[in-house]
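queue> pop job 88
queue> type: inverse folding (structure -> sequence)
queue> payload:
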């Protein structure tokens, strides 16, 4: 686990002492339990979140209770939330949820701007973080729109297995997969039954065992025509 924001910025030592101190003094640290939603009640939501430890899920939720995961963030990752405070009533704003015990660091725009103005490396970091966030969202939306539910489920299982260190055991329920993909539990259960019949997985209570990772990844990589 990382302990300070300096461990998340690879060029930290190249910043001036004045700017390092400004960033350190204004960093906000928060810890969240598994399943807890990330909320910054007393600060402007216009900066960058750094994951010091744990795992974060970035997702969208509808008023009717449906959810779809945009992407996951792990230790060392950064995520831009620069549009949240400027969102209008009709704009879509993502939610963040800790998937395990998670530690975060947060910098507001007002604290980053003077540093970015004087330090080209930091300005580049801010731009690249924003671009990476946007690209991750586009990649996931593209995949979900142009692929079958079955491919999406296989991809989700492959991602979850990778996050778990390729153990072959994914700790996830049918409901959680449905929430990640923006579909229903009934649809997920039907597709998992099919994957089980193909010999790709075995299901258990709150667990899915991957028996044929290559076969699973093969379906996940197929593009609908």
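queue> result:
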């Amino acid at each position: 686990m990382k302990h300070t924001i300096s461990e998340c910025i690879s060029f930290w030592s190249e910043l001036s002492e004045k700017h390092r101190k400004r960033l350190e003094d204004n960093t906000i640290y928060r810890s969240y339990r598994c399943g807890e939603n990330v909320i910054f009640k007393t600060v402007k939501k216009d900066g960058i979140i750094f994951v010091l430890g744990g795992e974060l899920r970035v997702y969208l939720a509808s008023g009717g209770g449906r959810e779809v995961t945009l992407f996951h963030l792990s230790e060392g990752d950064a995520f831009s939330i620069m549009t949240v405070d400027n969102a209008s009533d009709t704009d879509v704003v993502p939610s963040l949820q800790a998937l395990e015990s998670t530690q975060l660091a947060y910098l507001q725009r007002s604290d980053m701007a003077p540093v970015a103005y004087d330090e080209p490396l930091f300005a580049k970091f801010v731009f690249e973080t924003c671009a990476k966030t946007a690209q991750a969202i586009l990649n996931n939306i593209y995949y979900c729109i142009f692929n079958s539910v079955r491919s999406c489920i296989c991809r989700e299982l492959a991602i979850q297995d990778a996050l778990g260190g390729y153990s072959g055991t994914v700790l996830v329920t049918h409901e959680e997969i449905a929430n990640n993909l923006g579909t229903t539990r009934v649809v997920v259960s039907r597709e998992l039954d099919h994957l089980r019949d193909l010999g790709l997985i075995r299901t258990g209570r709150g667990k899915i065992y991957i028996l044929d990772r290559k076969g699973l990844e093969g379906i996940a990589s197929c593009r609908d025509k």
